[in-house]
Amino acid sequence: MTYIATYRGRPTRVQIQETEPGRFRVLLGETPYDVDFLEPQRNILSLLIDGQSFEVDVDPAPGADLYGVMIKGDHYEIEVVEERKKKLSMKLAAGAAGRQDLKSPMAGNVRAVLVQPGDEVKVGQVLMILEAMKMQNEIKSTIHGTVTSVSAREGQTVAMGDPLCVVEPLAEEG
Fold it and tell me: How many of the other CB atoms lie within 10 Å of CB of 38?
């Protein structure tokens, strides 16, 4: 998987490849690391990175891509977004027009459906929340419009590209 991790406004590309159970090859920018991973408690990570041991406390913000991370007493606020999702959101932020057939940007589980057909939504409004690899991902409206259909259901497993919902733009008043 490839992610974009942003700390203090600086994005870094992070590629993670599992080489065997509990062992990963991580490319942070251009720098490679060998990582042994264990989660002895929920949100507590025990990492062995190139032979150095770290205990990391991760505090995910509910419904967001932000994480509070504590390492050796130092606290960091980091945004972590799957690269495909980040590229899609940047593309959509550049301007969307017309009907929006929202599809799942990743494989995962539908944790919450926050709209129903007939609801009026605004740009950036969260329509549903997907969970993939213990990360919650918000699916947001890209236009001001009306939800005309919702395909996804809470608890459903979806594949990348599965239809989630359709938002029709509001008719312009003339």
Answer: 10
